[in-house]
Specification:
Layout: H1 24-54, H2 62-97, H3 113-118, H4 126-149
Length: 150
Amino acid sequence: MNKIADMELPEGYTPSEEETYMSPQQRAFFCRLLLEWRRQLVDDADKTLAAMTEEKAIFADPTDRAALETDRNFELRTRDRERKLIAKIDRTIAIIEADEYGYCEECGVEIGLKRLEARPVTDLCIGCKTRAERREKVNLAEDEEMIEES
């Protein structure tokens, strides 16, 4: 069985609304987009690791050391978010291979090409995402109220 990522695409291909939604070509396009994004994230992580292991800075000034530690902590938090994103990319590629990509996990409607091009790992349509964000906002407000009342 051929993987969707191995499918030949015309040079400069981009998904079009005139095609059948989530045709093999569209799925191959998104799979390649995700694989490239993943490669860039892994390359960045490798560069960070190399820089942090090579860096042997000794500072006499505690302020300089604190600045370096702050920068390192920021970099590590960024890489941790990217590690989670890589896991989501891998999950999305598996969904593409299973021919289930492009549909909202909550309501099942088409997510849409423009939304997928903007955020290829998205798994919710705009309506469901908006509702989820509203629920999250309400929950945060309720949590803040509970803290204030305590």
